[in-house]
From TrEMBL, chains A, B:
GO cellular component assignments: cytoplasm
Species whose genome carries this gene: Leptothrix cholodnii (strain ATCC 51168 / LMG 8142 / SP-6) (Leptothrix discophora (strain SP-6))
Protein's name according to its UniProt entry: Phosphate acyltransferase
Annotated HAMAP family: PlsX
GO terms (BP aspect): fatty acid biosynthetic process; phospholipid biosynthetic process
Family per record: Belongs to the PlsX family.
Uppermost EC category: transferase
Keyword presence, Cytoplasm: yes
Length: 363, 363
């Protein structure tokens, strides 16, 4: 049997805290007999889990609230469940206590604390946030960055492509995932100056075998599944993500309104219920909850703040899959390949053929 | 009775040409007894309309194909239906022959030819493309730019806000439409450097009464209808638009698949048909076809290339409404107000208190 995968869970984070995170952890443990959990939070709030096997409660006296400014999370609440949970994946003289951390806490705070505690990998200027969206092929399209970096250079976009490819290979099991650069046309001459330059870098990276670059993609290609990975800056990625969420919400509202508008519509709703249910399950956003914070010296996953137990369990599973399949090493290998091939044109990285971090799972 | 509104129609443009544009023109004329049309194209292809009243065929010997490069449209095909149609709205020593032009031709070519022939208004650096998306309030959210300008300054975004406000006031009859700046968070400190600076300019413009600025909005606010107008650069706008199109297509595919998956599902589809039909009508993209090219010395509207007769008729109606309600004068007045109040901080515009163009409807 494989060595266990251990996750540290910020049980206090998100809109609902332990009332959601604990049931999710329970189900997750039942489904993953080789998983172990470090449940981080106020012990009083976690008593329900005190007797669980393959679990240990790690005390943290404070909680980062969803509307806490980054500064509070970073400098004031030094014993927050978020911070203590992240600390568990930090490698020091000894391997880290956990393989990956999961939190539903606020994104800005999580990224800031994770970056402060874990530091970025050599060869990475900025960590990025990657998540998945469903596509017509009944698979998932991975997309990054989704909001961590608003002003990006072409080099940053190349780094995103490299890290995202590592993520897809680890979590979705595709060794050479296809990569698209989000643009406003397929032709290489399209787009802003940064995007055109990024296109050149990605093409070169594709030719060197670092990534499997397929050229420009457009917004609709995300849902077509034209490429496994879509790369963009955090501003564009965040707008695309929230636009999609907004449209989905509107259409869902309209469908509900239409199926309750008249007595006939209500009857039709009863008849159509199993069909609508199947449709709903297929696009259920809880099935793809769990964004990866990539580029750090440790694995951190972010659940949606409003996640319910099923959604939070999905985030746990994604973190588990990433850790089980050596995401950290995969990112590191690809970045080192890029550095050695001098593909990353950032001169500051020229001599940074990095030492491997010491992840727990490499022991 | 009001003086007639006259539209020039590029009958050859789009994927389908006269087989779509002529039936759309016929229906449009029937619904608008005070409208007149200049039908531009190859006379042989327009014989069906030869005897229509309130119509005149204007001969053009060439056609800009959907995949023609901009250069071909601009420099080679000087007698194209697109170019001749645009020429009709150009004011010279005499008022223009038409109040607005409508084409389903390719966007890049249309913008380039329109800009070349008509020139930009004083105070406007770059024309922008504005269109509408449906929102949960059963209204429409107008958005610009949707792809004409990929690298924008804060000043450009201010100009978009001013022109977009004029558009909403003319077409949707809201005299002081609310304006949102598309960003990745509501707080003023969010976003890229350009967006933060644009936020300052838009706030100042709001305080001066030039626009009704409501602050930052996010992608999901487009479909909530949080503001009447959403302003963004052309890269972000195009990605948001195509992301929404892609998601809508995917969900529509999924619904069709679910309602044909099993014999029961097919039965349920029959029962639910009237409800699904009503839902479909509500989000029918043909109901909001017709993008405005704003900032030019003449009104030009762009229909989707793949528009059917109903969609093309919608574009004709939008152009008609804009011309009837003096969109050109409204844009001009607002831009002049901005110039006089020195709100547009582009120094090149400092002494450009512009002369009014001579639109046909002002005669």
């Amino acid at each position: 049997m494989q060595r266990p995968v251990r996750l540290s869970v910020d049980c206090m984070g998100g809109d609902h805290g332990p009332s959601i995170t604990l049931p999710a952890c329970r189900t997750f443990l039942d489904k993953h007999p080789d998983a172990e959990l470090l449940l981080v939070g106020k012990p009083d709030a976690l008593t329900a889990a005190a007797s669980w096997s393959r679990c240990r409660i790690v005390a943290a006296s404070e909680v980062v609230e969803m509307d806490d400014p980054i500064d509070i999370a970073l400098r004031k609440k030094r014993d927050s469940s978020m911070r203590v949970a992240i600390q568990q994946v930090k490698a020091g003289d000894t391997p880290p206590a956990a393989d990956a951390c999961v939190s539903a806490g606020n994104t800005g705070a999580l990224m800031a604390v994770a970056r402060y505690l874990l530091k970025t990998l050599d060869g990475i200027d900025r960590p990025a946030i990657a998540s998945v969206m469903p596509n017509t092929r009944d698979g998932f399209t991975t997309m990054l960055d989704l909001g961590a970096n608003v002003d990006c250079t072409a080099e940053h976009l190349l780094q995103f492509a490299v890290m995202g490819s590592a993520l897809v290979s680890a979590v979705d099991g595709k060794e050479t995932p296809t990569v698209g650069l989000l643009n406003i046309g397929e032709e290489a001459i399209k787009g802003s100056e940064v995007i055109k330059r990024a296109g050149e870098l990605l093409r070169a990276a594709g030719e060197s075998g670092l990534i499997n670059f397929r050229g420009n993609v457009e917004g609709n290609d995300i849902f077509k599944g034209t490429t496994d990975l879509v790369v963009c800056d955090g501003f564009v990625g965040n707008v695309a993500l929230k636009t999609a969420e907004g449209l989905a919400t509107m259409l869902s509202t309209f469908i509900k309104q239409e199926f309750t508008r008249t007595p006939y519509a209500k009857l039709a709703a009863l008849v159509a219920l199993p069909v609508l249910k199947h449709f709903k399950d297929r696009v259920d956003h809880r099935r793809y909850n769990g964004a990866a914070l990539l580029g750090l010296r440790g694995l951190v996953f972010k659940s949606h703040g409003s996640a319910d137990a099923l959604a939070f369990e999905t985030a746990l599973t994604r973190a588990y899959d990433a850790a089980r399949n050596g995401l950290l090493e995969r990112v590191h290998e690809r970045i080192n390949f890029a550095l050695q091939a001098s593909l990353n044109t950032n001169p500051a990285n020229a001599n940074r053929a990095a030492e491997a971090p010491a992840p727990r799972q490499a022991a």
